[in-house]
From TrEMBL:
Key words of the record: Coiled coil
Residue ranges occupied by any B-box C-terminal domain in the UniProt entry: 4-130
Coiled coil start-end: 44-97
InterPro entries attached to this UniProt entry: Bbox_C
Descriptive protein name: B-box C-terminal domain-containing protein
Species in which this protein is naturally found: Amphimedon queenslandica
Length: 247
């Protein structure tokens, strides 16, 4: 009996080993679950902040477009207002001389009309000669429209996994700059996503190392930063120990 018990206890060792291994797996799964949930919360917060920033930019654009539309409207209305004042003034002069001549014809004696005929004719000619009706036609048109550019708003981003990041490729490498004091080099770099769009992700998701070709040296550590002006373009700084081609 004792022998059988010992044999069974010995057979339990692999089972106990599997139990411990599974406990470690469960612990790792639980830890990874927490990391994924935390990462999910972080991404949601990033989305919220990104949309908030876009809304602020949109509000600024709205104010700019509104001011621009008001300025164009006011400028056109100012031109029309000046034309209207000129047209109204000329109309008033013409109506005054018309009323004067008509009143003279109705109430004046033949002698009075004959005496003032030349003066009235000259006055009418003077007024009509000073008016160019063609110039008083509306110079401005309601010909301004809003030129929309909202392509980027229909697709403001994607959720990119590490697998998708591995499918990205370098789109453009900028000019190299040598920082003499630190003996470092610096260059800009942009990355293209699988859908041909420019990749724009947090710096924590990007790592870059330079490997000398055919020299068996260790990869060169680099520092990755963003540029303040170009979205999707990062700047790489490093201190290479060898010259030649690097990948």
């Amino acid at each position: 009996y004792t022998k059988h018990c010992l044999e069974l206890e010995g057979s339990l060792n692999p089972v106990k080993g599997e139990i411990e291994a599974l406990k470690k797996v469960l612990s790792a799964l639980a830890e990874r679950e927490g990391e994924i949930r935390e990462r999910g919360k972080g991404v949601l917060e990033e989305i919220r902040k990104m949309v908030e920033e876009m809304m602020n930019v949109l509000r600024q654009s709205e104010r700019k477009l509104t001011e621009q539309a008001k300025r164009v409207t006011d400028d056109k209305l100012k031109v029309l207002s000046e034309q209207m004042k000129s047209a109204e003034m000329n109309l008033s002069l013409l109506e005054d001389v018309k009323d004067y001549v008509e009143q003279s014809l109705k109430t004046g004696s033949p002698q009075q009309i004959l005496r003032s005929k030349k003066q009235m004719m000259e006055r009418m000619s003077e007024i009509t000669a000073g008016i160019n009706v063609e110039e008083l036609h509306p110079k401005e048109k309601a010909d301004f429209v809003l030129s929309k550019n909202i392509k980027s708003l229909h697709h403001i981003g994607d959720i990119v996994t590490s697998t998708a990041l591995q499918q990205c490729r370098v789109k453009k490498v900028g000019c190299f700059e040598r920082l003499l004091e630190e003996m470092e080099i610096s260059f800009s770099l942009s990355i293209e996503a699988p859908d041909s769009s420019l990749l724009c992700v947090p710096l924590s998701s990007l790592k870059c190392s330079l490997v000398p070709v055919g020299k068996g040296d260790q990869p060169i550590h680099t520092t990755v930063t963003t540029t303040s002006t170009d979205i999707g373009v990062c700047r790489i700084q490093c201190n290479p120990s060898t010259s030649g081609t690097h990948t």
